[in-house]
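Worked example

This section walks through a single chain of length 206. The input is the sequence exactly as stored; nothing has been trimmed or padded.
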Amino acid sequence: MRYTGPVCRLCRREGQKLFLKGDRCYTDKCAINKRNFAPGQHGQSRKKVTEYGMQLREKQKVRRFYGISESQMYKYYNLADKMKGVTGENLLKILELRLDNVVFRMGLAASRAEARQLVVHGHFTLNGAKADIPSLMTTVGDVIQVKEKSRSTDKFKSLVENHNGNTVSWLNIDLEQLKGTIVAEPTREDIDLPIEEHLIVELYSK
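Given that input, the structure is written out below as tokens.
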């Protein structure tokens, strides 16, 4: 079941910014800046973290970064484990290639949660066909584009005006056409999140 409560509690639970609220996370209003301890009655008490606890927290952190359920996480792990290469890096590559994350990486949403919402509302096409499922897996050569009737909306006009141009190397962005083409598979170096994926592999491989 997907968490639907205040997302700032998730950052406080993990003890670091997960950047779940877009631009707000970079301001003094960020909850971590005000209350950098876990939520709840015992949030400020110090607890000894076990090896299992570290593995579990890392898995939960990645789930929250990408906004996925436990069942999805486990499915992606099994898929990554069957692929050639390093399982942890394969897992992150799969998560990066989800449609909602690609939209976020294109700079057409302030957060992955917003990207997921825009996809669900049917603002994007994948290779010219309607794409309104955030978990759709993309691959090299795929073209993701804002639907023509959506391009003139204030939302996307604002996103283009405020686009910072910082996109990942595996995406080719055409802002005029509001289009992105996947030109390569993401590498571990492309993923700028504080993740220790080996802990997740250790957790699931027990």
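What to look for: The chain has a mean pLDDT of 86.
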